[in-house]
TrEMBL record:
Family membership noted in the UniProt record: Belongs to the CdaR family.
Domain CdaR GGDEF-like positions: 166-291
The protein's name: PucR family transcriptional regulator
Domain PucR C-terminal helix-turn-helix: 346-403
InterPro entries listed in its UniProt record: CdaR-like_regulators, CdaR_GGDEF, GAF-like_dom_sf, PucR_C-HTH_dom, PucR_C-HTH_sf
Origin: domain of life: Bacteria
Pfam family, any one: GGDEF_2
The organism's taxonomic lineage, starting at the top: Bacteria, Bacillati, Bacillota, Bacilli, Bacillales
């Protein structure tokens, strides 16, 4: 297409002015978003809109349910691959009318999108070409925003690392730094760490950042990466923060798998606190969860929070005591000797019984034995270990020592 047919030549003072120009040319409402679906400009004085566009303008970002629908329907995957306009049929469930969208590219990276809401008309092939020209014309303006945002993010990440490593100790100083960077505070927070199978490459970082920026499940105040770790400061909104954080983690892992085919993501989060000087503590606790997951595997597969570790919180301390000779359990020693001599499974039987809350039927099913066989084994355990199976303290001590021995064996 020759230059004289380009309706977007010339200078525009702002992206708002540019959005109005695109709207005038295409005779449709227009919105311009950054790569994470945050609204950066929209055309004014539109006679017609739809609920999805209204919600986007009000909250300055595309609602998460709309983003999810656009992923499932295939529009966003197409926009991340193609420089051609993509036609998006209506998605009535989320209030989305018929649209055409085009990506704004910087080299091989998408830095934004132009969305055109078709109002009782369909863009002609010529208008589709104009939309491609609009995407090229918008690049420099969007790029300026992109560069400013990246510079701010570098300063914010530097501050986050200072907090994660305890370099700012006083609560007042921390809050002053956060205010200066215009980072909102929250009454409670936890550090969340996602660990990937290998060091993050640029493309993966973009995909992860996209997911984190578009989630509206719970506020994420700060975010950085370290090798194969993604580290977040998350701010649960309810009085059930552990439940909220668990739901967020499971949703994030599912989306990484569905959208980007990234599997094998481990996660841990530290304690939930209200004082920002405890960010370092929460971070150390999140790393402790990941270290335990690496050693214990399936045993704590569905545990993410430090507060949910139960007895495992104390294992490093107990192991230290054990190695100094201050922690022994004759009952376990006797059972281990008996198992070795008779090729039996009494230690495993007791552990499984306790793993299943002393439910005899469940334990028998897992061990693939008859309930009578289980009852006989439990009696043998009581006799050999000189253990009172009615004394909870004795049983808990043996259970902890069995788990601790496994933990120690895994190094």
């Amino acid at each position: 297409m020759s230059h004289y047919t380009d309706p977007f030549r010339g200078e525009f003072d702002s992206l708002e002015e540019f959005a109005d120009r695109v709207s005038d040319v295409l005779k449709c409402p227009v919105t311009i978003e950054d790569a994470n679906h945050r609204l950066i400009a929209y055309s004014a004085h539109d006679d017609y809109t739809d609920p999805a566009r209204t919600a986007t303008i009000i909250s300055r970002r595309v609602p998460e349910k709309v983003i999810n629908s656009l992923w499932k329907q295939g529009a966003i995957p197409a926009l991340l691959k193609s420089r051609e306009p993509v036609r998006v049929p209506p998605i009535h469930d989320v209030g989305l009318g018929s649209r055409v969208a085009v990506s704004i590219w910087k080299n091989d990276e998408v830095i934004g999108f132009i969305w055109v809401l078709e109002t009782n008309r369909t863009l002609s092939p010529e208008e589709m070409e104009w939309l491609k020209l609009a995407a090229k014309a918008a690049k420099n303006k969007v790029l300026q925003l992109y560069m400013r945002k990246n510079k701010k993010e570098e300063r914010v990440q530097e501050l986050f690392w200072k907090l994660l490593t305890g370099h700012i100790a006083r609560e007042d100083d921390i809050r002053a730094h956060l205010a200066a960077m215009q980072i909102p505070t929250a009454p409670q927070f936890a550090v969340v760490v996602f660990r990937f199978a290998a060091d993050l490459i640029a493309e993966m970082e973009r995909q992860i950042s996209y997911l984190l920026q578009t989630t509206q499940q719970l506020p994420l105040l700060l975010y950085t990466t370290d090798g194969r770790d993604v580290i977040l400061l998350a701010a649960p909104k309810t009085d059930q923060p552990l439940k909220e954080l668990n739901a967020f983690i499971e949703s994030f892992a599912a989306k990484m798998k569905e959208r980007f085919h990234i599997h094998d993501v481990q996660c841990g989060f530290g304690g939930v606190y209200g004082a920002y000087r405890l960010i370092e503590k929460s971070y150390r606790e999140a790393l402790a969860v990941l270290a335990l997951k690496e050693k214990l595997g399936d045993e704590i597969k569905s545990v993410y929070g430090y507060a949910q570790l139960g007895i495992y919180q104390f294992f490093d301390f107990l192991l230290e005591q054990k190695r100094q000779g201050e922690w022994t359990n004759p009952a376990l020693t006797k059972l281990q000797s008996y198992d070795q001599k008779h090729h039996s499974d009494l230690v495993k039987t007791f552990e499984t019984f306790f793993d299943h809350n002393e439910n005899a039927q469940e334990t028998a099913d897992v061990l693939n034995v008859h309930p009578n066989t289980l009852a006989y084994r439990l009696k043998r355990i009581a006799d050999i270990a000189e253990l009172d199976l009615n004394d909870m303290n004795q049983k808990i001590k043996l259970y902890i020592d069995i788990k601790l021995a496994k933990y120690e064996a895994r190094g």
